[in-house]
Amino acid sequence: MFNNAGINKVFLVGYVSSTPRLNQQADGQWFYCFPLATNEYIKKRDSMVEHTEWHQVKIPTRQFAETVPQLDKGNLIYLEGRIKTNAYTDEQGIKRYISEVVSVTFRVLSNSVYKGEAEAAQA
Predict the structure, then answer these.
(1) Which UniProt keywords are given for this protein, alphabetically ordered (predicted)?
(2) CB-based contact 35:15 (threshold 8 Å)
(3) Pairing of strands 21-24, 95-110
Protein backbone atom coordinates (compact mmCIF):
# COMPACT_ATOMS: atom_id res chain seq x y z
CA MET A 1 0.00 0.00 0.00
CA PHE A 2 0.89 3.66 -0.04
CA ASN A 3 1.18 4.02 3.77
CA ASN A 4 0.11 7.68 3.56
CA ALA A 5 2.86 8.55 1.07
CA GLY A 6 2.03 11.39 -1.29
CA ILE A 7 2.63 11.69 -4.99
CA ASN A 8 4.02 14.88 -6.50
CA LYS A 9 3.96 14.33 -10.26
CA VAL A 10 3.12 16.75 -13.07
CA PHE A 11 2.59 16.10 -16.78
CA LEU A 12 2.29 19.17 -19.03
CA VAL A 13 2.05 19.80 -22.75
CA GLY A 14 2.40 23.46 -23.58
CA TYR A 15 4.21 26.25 -25.35
CA VAL A 16 7.52 27.78 -24.25
CA SER A 17 6.62 31.45 -23.78
CA SER A 18 10.10 32.96 -23.72
CA THR A 19 13.65 31.84 -24.39
CA PRO A 20 14.93 29.92 -21.33
CA ARG A 21 17.26 31.95 -19.09
CA LEU A 22 20.04 30.53 -16.94
CA ASN A 23 19.67 31.21 -13.19
CA GLN A 24 21.66 30.16 -10.13
CA GLN A 25 19.91 29.38 -6.84
CA ALA A 26 21.24 30.38 -3.43
CA ASP A 27 22.48 26.80 -2.91
CA GLY A 28 24.64 27.05 -6.05
CA GLN A 29 22.51 24.89 -8.35
CA TRP A 30 21.96 26.13 -11.90
CA PHE A 31 18.58 25.95 -13.66
CA TYR A 32 17.09 27.01 -16.97
CA CYS A 33 13.86 28.92 -16.23
CA PHE A 34 10.96 29.90 -18.48
CA PRO A 35 7.18 30.27 -18.48
CA LEU A 36 5.10 27.51 -20.11
CA ALA A 37 1.56 28.17 -21.36
CA THR A 38 -1.08 25.43 -21.40
CA ASN A 39 -4.55 25.84 -22.88
CA GLU A 40 -7.88 24.29 -22.08
CA TYR A 41 -11.42 24.98 -23.21
CA ILE A 42 -14.11 25.66 -20.64
CA LYS A 43 -17.82 25.73 -21.35
CA LYS A 44 -19.39 29.05 -20.32
CA ARG A 45 -23.07 29.38 -21.01
CA ASP A 46 -23.50 28.16 -24.60
CA SER A 47 -19.94 28.56 -25.87
CA MET A 48 -16.46 27.20 -25.29
CA VAL A 49 -13.93 29.71 -23.93
CA GLU A 50 -10.18 29.21 -24.16
CA HIS A 51 -8.33 29.50 -20.84
CA THR A 52 -4.54 29.79 -20.66
CA GLU A 53 -2.71 28.69 -17.54
CA TRP A 54 0.88 29.87 -16.96
CA HIS A 55 3.49 27.65 -15.27
CA GLN A 56 6.97 28.66 -14.16
CA VAL A 57 9.34 25.86 -15.22
CA LYS A 58 12.82 25.08 -13.91
CA ILE A 59 15.08 22.56 -15.66
CA PRO A 60 18.32 21.49 -13.90
CA THR A 61 21.37 22.21 -16.07
CA ARG A 62 23.21 19.12 -14.84
CA GLN A 63 20.67 16.89 -16.60
CA PHE A 64 19.89 18.88 -19.72
CA ALA A 65 22.84 21.18 -20.41
CA GLU A 66 22.92 20.23 -24.09
CA THR A 67 19.21 20.09 -24.92
CA VAL A 68 17.72 23.14 -23.15
CA PRO A 69 19.68 25.74 -25.16
CA GLN A 70 17.84 24.38 -28.23
CA LEU A 71 14.49 25.41 -26.71
CA ASP A 72 13.03 28.62 -28.03
CA LYS A 73 9.92 30.70 -27.63
CA GLY A 74 6.98 29.00 -29.31
CA ASN A 75 8.22 25.39 -29.02
CA LEU A 76 5.54 22.88 -28.06
CA ILE A 77 6.97 20.57 -25.37
CA TYR A 78 5.94 17.61 -23.23
CA LEU A 79 7.26 17.89 -19.69
CA GLU A 80 7.26 15.64 -16.63
CA GLY A 81 8.22 16.99 -13.25
CA ARG A 82 7.16 17.88 -9.73
CA ILE A 83 5.71 20.96 -8.06
CA LYS A 84 7.95 22.90 -5.71
CA THR A 85 6.80 25.88 -3.63
CA ASN A 86 9.31 28.48 -2.43
CA ALA A 87 8.79 31.29 0.07
CA TYR A 88 10.38 34.73 -0.08
CA THR A 89 9.89 38.13 1.53
CA ASP A 90 9.07 41.05 -0.78
CA GLU A 91 10.20 44.70 -0.49
CA GLN A 92 7.33 45.52 1.91
CA GLY A 93 8.29 42.67 4.25
CA ILE A 94 5.35 40.47 3.22
CA LYS A 95 6.00 36.75 2.97
CA ARG A 96 5.05 35.47 -0.49
CA TYR A 97 5.00 32.05 -2.14
CA ILE A 98 5.72 30.93 -5.68
CA SER A 99 5.00 27.51 -7.16
CA GLU A 100 7.27 26.15 -9.87
CA VAL A 101 7.43 22.97 -11.91
CA VAL A 102 10.87 21.33 -11.61
CA SER A 103 11.38 19.18 -14.69
CA VAL A 104 12.50 15.57 -14.50
CA THR A 105 12.30 15.05 -18.26
CA PHE A 106 11.00 16.87 -21.31
CA ARG A 107 10.69 16.43 -25.05
CA VAL A 108 10.22 18.94 -27.86
CA LEU A 109 7.07 18.00 -29.76
CA SER A 110 7.07 20.76 -32.36
CA ASN A 111 9.25 23.67 -33.36
CA SER A 112 6.34 25.44 -35.01
CA VAL A 113 4.55 28.24 -33.25
CA TYR A 114 0.81 28.07 -32.72
CA LYS A 115 -0.34 31.52 -33.87
CA GLY A 116 -2.72 32.26 -31.00
CA GLU A 117 -0.24 31.11 -28.38
CA ALA A 118 2.58 33.19 -29.84
CA GLU A 119 0.40 36.27 -29.69
CA ALA A 120 -0.56 35.55 -26.07
CA ALA A 121 3.09 34.98 -25.13
CA GLN A 122 4.06 38.38 -26.53
CA ALA A 123 1.38 40.20 -24.52
Answers:
(1) DNA-binding
(2) no
(3) unpaired
- 81 sits in which H/E element: strand 76-89
Instruction: Kindly report, residue by residue over 71-82, the tens digit of the pLDDT.
Output: 889 999 999 999
**H or E element that contains 115:** helix 115-122
Output the pTM of the full model.
0.78
CATH 1.10.287.130 fits 13-122, yes or no: no
Under 8 Å CB-to-CB from 33, ≥6 apart: which residues?
20, 21, 22, 23, 56, 57, 58, 59
Domain spans of the chain, in order of start: 13-122
d(CA 65, CA 2): 35
How far is residue 31's CA from residue 64's CA, in Å, rounded to a whole number? 9
